[in-house]
Request: fold
Amino acid sequence: MTGMMLGGMILGAILLWFSHRYAWWRPVVNWQRPRILMYHMVQPHRAGAKFNGLRVTPERFEAQVRWLREQGFSFYTMSELWAQWDRLPERAVAITFDDGYADNLHYALPILERYNAKATIYVVVDRHDRDWSTYKKAHHNSGELARETKLSDEEIRQLVASGRVEIGSHTLTHCNLRTTPEGAKRHELLASREQLEALTGKPVRSFAYPFGIYSADDVRLARETGYETAVTTIEGIDELMPRPEPLDLKRVKVSGKDNQLAFVMKMRGGRRGWSK
Ligand SMILES: [Zn+2]
Reply:
């Protein structure tokens, strides 16, 4: 009797955990609405590292891209996605990477090539030896992200030459837009766009707000400084119609802690669990 009760409690606890983790109860968001995925690094996890949540292992990234391909997704860069928003097929996806880590070339690009996929990388212009984890929270001072190797200019040109990668801006210094004065903000947005255009020889019209911190004024500023789309860290999947504000787009966050089931559930529902 007590054994059965205990068994029931354990089963109940497992079901609760499963529901919390995978949000199977969340309704499927219409597959006509495009998914914009947010990544940072694609590389093996480091023992004891603080930011492994930002590291999707190459094995998992490959399984995710393979799943997208097998499920019939069409891959777009952010500029392509917005340009074709009115006539996107069902199951459109834009893979995006923030910051500009070197592994985006070394680990992610070969996988994108293997599955004929595309991506957009939001590069910080002045990215070397910079520790943006400390700007938001001072206690994040491990230096881990500063030590992480970033893309060199030459590597950025290689990515562009692959024909699979669009380069977007993530400002000059990964500044916190909430605490940066107006004039400096304008410079961060405008000069980063111009410098990345000079580096790549391509128009730069896509932007990602550093830390996902921004205001209505920053949306206006991004438009004024020449951007067509900007992505946030708000989790979810935007409406197809009416067209969303293109400088305030939601993303599906892919974490280094997501297994394949968690990834699939996020693709269905836009986000996981009870969070937000
Ligand atoms: Zn960032």
Q: What stands out?
A: The chain has ten helices and ten strands. The first helix runs from residue 2 to 22. The pocket of zinc ion is lined by residues 98-99, 132, 170, 174, 210 (CB under 6 Å). Residues 122 and 168 are 4 Å apart (CA to CA).
